[in-house]
Specification:
- By secondary structure, the chain is α/β, with parallel strands linked by helices.
- The protein has 14 helices and 13 strands.
- The chain has helices spanning 40-46, 49-52, 85-91, 110-123, 136-148, 162-170, 182-196, 208-223, 240-254, 275-281, 308-317, 327-341, 347-361, 383-391; strands at 7-12, 18-19, 34-38, 81-83, 95-100, 128-132, 152-157, 174-178, 198-200, 231-235, 264-270, 321-325, 370-375.
- Strand 1 (7-12) and strand 2 (18-19) form a beta hairpin.
- Helix 4 (110-123) packs parallel to helix 5 and helix 8 (208-223) crosses helix 9 (240-254).
- The longest helix has 16 residues, at 208-223.
- It binds pyridoxal-5'-phosphate and zinc ion.
Length: 392
């Protein structure tokens, strides 16, 4: 007899249609992403602060709210929550923290999503894993596929940062370069997956990358001592982490850990690719495809995010906001984060520094609120971008 699965069922994030979680599932028939659902009453009985003390220092410590298959793990999660006092004083946010996701395997928080997705794909006997990527997702998928012993196909724009191309090749993945954007790469995967027998690990097109990324919400709660911050700034491309953290907060409420209050979520985008900010400012429930998307923050170059309606819903429900940062502002902010705090960030992470300065200046962030910036990736993989900033 197989052991009981933690995931009771999958449920559409839009129309609430239910799906069997014991077989391969991707999108709902309505075209929207699926959420994994758990018996949270049962989870709450053993997922306690006290029990967490003796668990492994990876995101798999939150076992009750993750798929309970043998994990394909490289030690991801439980990243440092770094108090940033000097930077905070300079920005006018005096209770500032940086959640440093650059410390994950393969140097970005994409590792969180991929450990969960690949774990589940392996259990479901996937033959080849495929995904489009703007950069870091490809490296993470290639690494976890290697760890699982499953072949991977990574489809990326031809101008993806070279570190991302090299890591995929080193991990033994097949790399396909496309003259276009991640949306074109996504189309390539969609067009070929049936004939090639690929298991599609695209952002939000399988249910478990959200599960891996939601653990950032659990970690914040644990690292702040069973509390959540007032404000979270998140560099938003596909929005998986933002959606995931909000899902985690809902789960925490259902388990009785928190009440109905929520951190105010802030989606930070690049001025050259800001579909969510545009929709937010126009008070729309969905975004429009962002034409001629261009930014050196490759992870933010997502012109048509599939989960746009979820991101916009969550910004509204949490009384959050959305704003843009230019590439030059990102690079300046990255230098400031590095020189004041010793964290060498991806431009995407640096964007949240610049956004904090703007929101503190406008009074949207109050000086003594607890604010968390997500540095979503390491700066070491962006040598092309940093060369431009540091030689200038
Ligand atoms: C992918 C990526 C993002 C965007 O993440 P989403 O969850 O898709 O919004 C931000 N920063 C970095 C470094 C990334 O690799
Ligand atoms: Zn649906």
């Amino acid at each position: 007899m197989s052991k009981q699965s933690n995931v009771v069922e999958l449920e559409c994030s839009a129309c609430l249609k239910k799906y069997d979680s014991s077989i391969e599932q991707h999108l709902c028939s309505c075209g929207k992403p699926l959420y994994a659902r758990y018996d949270l009453k049962r989870a709450a009985a053993t997922l306690t602060l006290n029990n967490l003390k003796s668990r492994p220092l990876t995101l798999w410590r939150y076992a009750e709210v993750l798929p309970n298959d043998p994990p394909v793990t490289l030690g991801e999660g439980m990243t440092a929550l770094v108090p940033a006092r000097r930077l905070g004083a300079s920005l006018g946010a005096f209770n500032l923290f940086v959640k440093d996701e650059g410390l994950n395997p393969t140097g970005s928080f994409k590792a969180r999503g991929m450990t969960a997705a690949v774990t589940r794909a392996k259990q479901l006997n996937a033959k080849t894993l495929a995904a489009p990527t703007a950069g870091n997702a490809g490296g993470a998928l290639a690494a976890y596929a290697a760890a699982a012993g499953i072949p991977a196909v990574i489809v990326m724009p031809a101008d993806t940062p070279s570190a991302n191309v090299m890591e995929c090749q080193a991990f033994g993945a097949k790399v396909i370069k496309i003259n276009g954007l991640i949306s074109d790469c996504g189309k390539y995967v969609a067009d070929h997956k049936q004939s090639e027998g690929w298991y599609d690990v695209s952002t939000l097109k399988e249910p478990y990358r959200i599960e891996g990324k939601k653990t950032m919400g659990y970690e914040l709660w644990e690292q702040f001592g069973a509390k959540l911050p007032d404000v979270i700034l998140y560099p938003t491309g596909g929005g998986v982490g933002l959606i995931g953290m909000c899902k985690a907060f809902d789960e925490m409420q259902e388990m009785g850990w928190i009440g109905s209050e929520r951190p105010r979520m802030v989606a930070v985008q690049a001025e050259g690719c800001a579909p969510i900010v545009k929709a937010w400012e126009a008070q729309r429930a969905t975004s429009e495809f962002f034409q001629n998307a261009a930014t050196l923050a490759s992870g933010l170059r997502v012109p048509g995010p599939l989960g746009d309606f979820l991101i916009l819903q969550m910004l509204k429900q949490t009384h959050g906001t959305a704003l843009t940062v230019t590439d030059d502002e990102m690079l300046e902010a990255g230098k400031e984060l590095a020189s004041r705090e010793g964290i060498f960030a991806a431009p995407e992470g640096a964007a949240t520094v610049s956004a904090t300065r703007k929101l503190a200046a406008s009074g949207w962030i109050k000086p003594n609120e607890t604010v968390v910036l997500f540095n979503t990736g390491t700066g070491y993989k962006y040598s092309e971008a940093w060369q431009r900033a540091l030689q200038a």
